[in-house]
Amino acid sequence: MNPLNGLKTFCRRHFTDEPLLPFRQIANTAMTHDELESRVANYMATWTNQGAVWTASDYLNFLGRLSRSGSPWEFASASEFAAHSNPDVTALFLRHDIDDDLCGCILLAQHEREVGAKASYFVLHSDVDYYGCFDESKIFQRIAVADDYIWRIHELGGNIGLHIDPLGIIGKHGVDGIMAMVSELMRFRALGLPCNSVCSHNSASAYNAMNHDVFAGYNVSGQTEVETPTRRVRLGVVDAASVGVDLLCDFYRTVAIKPVQPTRSSYGYLIDCRPTFDFEYDLSLSAVVGKSWEVGGPMAQLFGTTIFDGLDLSDVLLRLPRGSKVVLNIHPMYFGGRMGPTKGL
Asked: Which residues, other chains included, contact 57 with Cβ-Cβ below 8 Å and sequence gap of 6+?
């Protein structure tokens, strides 16, 4: 029996009142590696123009500083980070949300392997130049050669997860975003990738809910449903274990809702609340354009700023109590374009 059949019926009955279009996909086998890299390079050039000036040597330098022998911190896998309890060592979770530059991730993974840094890569599965897009018939045209890059990242030691966007798919296309998510999880596993971890694409400020709010027990927005441009969607209805998801790597714990003036986001979603999260980590550092970091999490107040510059995080980490848990979120797009050879995959 196909394990998806029961979930399909469940989603049709419980996820929305108005029926969703079925998720359908076909593999676009016509695109070559060169054509994919050219497409990605053309898009990534726009980030270079916005001041995204990290280079490959910058990244290697950044990793090398964090990997010095004797430092009171260590890189952790997602499962190690979730279970971390050593009071003498700070855990670093290196997270790459691949919104755009899949090709450039190859060099990131190579450098991580050189210094022994563990990292997790989350592949976005909704309307993205490197992976695929929905056509006018609402069929997802998946770019087949993208799998070669994903598999190479895995071979280099990167953990592959899914950057989930079920709410985005429903809101933009009226297509069953839950089945789109689950289908990709199962497809990766069929390729030999465990793919048991996910993290959310976009945020509550874009969708009025987190994408992982669709999972029962992880509905941190505190809402039972959310309005999208095409459907009202019920939240907290999918059992993560039943679809093989062990780790939700946003690492949110609880939420308090603070009402604000209703407005519409750039995605067309009606935003009528702004969640304030409690976290399972102590600090998050997210790379932004330029050589800068956005600071978040419970210990952010230690720094008195929400943005700081620089590639060396040693001084920042030394200001934290030992045993802390720190998320380093680095989107490959901020490196300003293609970062190195990916020929011969």
From this structure: none
